[in-house]
Amino acid sequence: KTMLAAAEAKARVNGWNVSIAITDPAGDLLGFLKLDGASTGSVDISLGKARTAARYARPTKVYADRVLADSLTILSVPGVVALQGGLPIIVGGRVIGAVGVSGVTSAQDEQVAAAAIASVIKP
Question: What would the mean pLDDT of 78-94 be, rounded to a whole number?
C-alpha cells in the first residue's frame, strides 16, 4: 500500500494518468491501481512490465534497448514486455517483487515505478 501511494503521488503531481501494478517475485499481482483517465490498455501493459521485471530480474528498459539495437530475438521469449517502465524490487541481491507502470511515456512510467520502490527501499 505504501508503494502504491508513493507511485500515485508521483503520478498525480505530474498530471500523469497511469496504471500501477506491483507483483511478487513470480510476477503474480499483489497490488494494483488505475488512476482516473488512464487508458484501458495501460492495465495489461503495467502488469506485463511488472511480470517481466520480476521474472527476469532486470528493468524492462533492458529489453526495450535490445529491440532498439535491432535485436528482435527477445520478442520471441514468452511473457517479455520490451517497454521501459518495469523495475524489479531487489533486497540483498534478491528479487522480492516488481513494479510496472503504464500510461505516459516509457521514461515517465519508470519514474513512477522508481518512486514506488524508493518509498520502501532506501539505497
Answer: 96
